[in-house]
Amino acid sequence: MKRFPDGFLWGGATAANQIEGAYKEGGKGLSTADVSPDGIMSPFHETDDALNLYHDAIDFYHRYQEDIALFAEMGFKAFRTSIAWTRIFPNGDETEPNEEGLQFYDRLFDELRKHQIEPVVTISHYEMPLGLVKNYGGWRNRRTVDFYERYARTVFTRYKDKVKYWMTFNEINVVLHAPFTGGGLIFREGENKQNTMYQAAHHQFVASALAVKAGHEIIPDSQIGCMIAATTTYPMTPKPEDVYAALQKERSTLFFSDVQARGSYPGYMKRFFKENGITIEMKEGDEALLKEHTVDYIGFSYYMSMTASTAPEDLAQSKGNLLGGVKNPYLKSSEWGWQIDPKGLRITLNTLYDRYQKPLFIVENGLGAVDQPEEDGSIQDDYRINYLRDHLIEAREAIEDGVDLIGYTSWGPIDLVSASTAEMKKRYGYIYVDRGNDGKGTFERKKKKSFYWYKDVIATNGESL
């Protein structure tokens, strides 16, 4: 029987800014998420007084024990979350961390350990101190590398006995698609935006390598990974121009894992920079640092595939997915227009493993949908079960293909504030949270049908699929 390996890390994935709330408690400073009421594509908002569901989120900050007990009931082996940078360094440039913030994550990780759940921790996940944006220009500024390294060393040292699996940046390639969220970038009039985004990415690559170096020094048995938003891209036709367009689209993502997993800038990007007037400022020693401190594993999100075309009539269509691309006529779409492609997950797994021969970790995969409680209060989310089952079957096939897969943490095991749209209406969880887009609700937790389904999947190590 095709099966998942022993010790496979089954679980769920979240982000601090999408679940915690308590955005001004415990000495926490303002982050970019706190001034992004419309989600990751929000432009910079000078004030934080608009209705922003991130501010209270699902109140995990006060309810984490209840929620972790539910994860344990499902049998979670791992729980991916992030540390809110602004709980540790409220403005980002302090020399000493905020003890109250450190204590919160002590309690959180202890609670996970109590239930034999392995924490998988993202150091920076779609939020950074607003102080670093306002005072330094975010990741455009080389000094931010130093502030990040101090933050990373602080949390490695504090949690060295509690956390083994780490990721340096969430979906690092999103700096090209959502530059304020991904890089704290506010563009200046007349500047070369592409140059600024790729310079910010270089600073993040250096910061990531420094974090790998620090993590291995401070926690010798740690596993430090990168994390990309992965999307396999198909050519719309066998026309060579379409095939090449698909290759280029894939490379725009794989560049980010190439640098972090292989340790150098690939030739195709050097050509791209030259042809687009992009100059990356590097310090002496940067290239050696990237080469010597590559990641231990590749974490990635997978929600959809993409299609590339050079035909004007195709390019004029509405975009099929969050990161662009042409609609694939062979695929169905979610309520938010994301095209559903389980086979694409197997292709993605094989592509990444063929390329890097490093362990892989699916750290996000899930279906955002509108869940309507029935008259009896139950939530019959068979559409979510079908989506997840189909993707897990393809993941199992990839393991048969020889892919080394560490684990699977589905996105949003509990309803949370959507990153793409900043809504509660777009639900992912096995656990329903009573809160609406208007911010109202009791915050009561309720198990969906998928809760029991996933519990059975974990209990049988995937054999029930």
Automatic annotation (TrEMBL):
<dbReference type="GO" id="GO:0008706">
    <property type="term" value="F:6-phospho-beta-glucosidase activity"/>
</dbReference>
<dbReference type="InterPro" id="IPR033132">
    <property type="entry name" value="GH_1_N_CS"/>
</dbReference>
<keyword id="KW-0326">Glycosidase</keyword>
<keyword id="KW-0378">Hydrolase</keyword>
<comment type="similarity">
    <text>Belongs to the glycosyl hydrolase 1 family.</text>
</comment>
<dbReference type="GO" id="GO:0016052">
    <property type="term" value="P:carbohydrate catabolic process"/>
</dbReference>
<dbReference type="Pfam" id="PF00232">
    <property type="entry name" value="Glyco_hydro_1"/>
</dbReference>
<dbReference type="InterPro" id="IPR018120">
    <property type="entry name" value="Glyco_hydro_1_AS"/>
</dbReference>
<dbReference type="GO" id="GO:0005829">
    <property type="term" value="C:cytosol"/>
</dbReference>
<protein>
    <recommendedName>
        <fullName>6-phospho-beta-glucosidase</fullName>
        <ecNumber>3.2.1.86</ecNumber>
    </recommendedName>
</protein>
<dbReference type="InterPro" id="IPR017853">
    <property type="entry name" value="GH"/>
</dbReference>
<feature type="active site" description="Nucleophile">
    <location>
        <position position="364"/>
    </location>
</feature>
<dbReference type="InterPro" id="IPR001360">
    <property type="entry name" value="Glyco_hydro_1"/>
</dbReference>
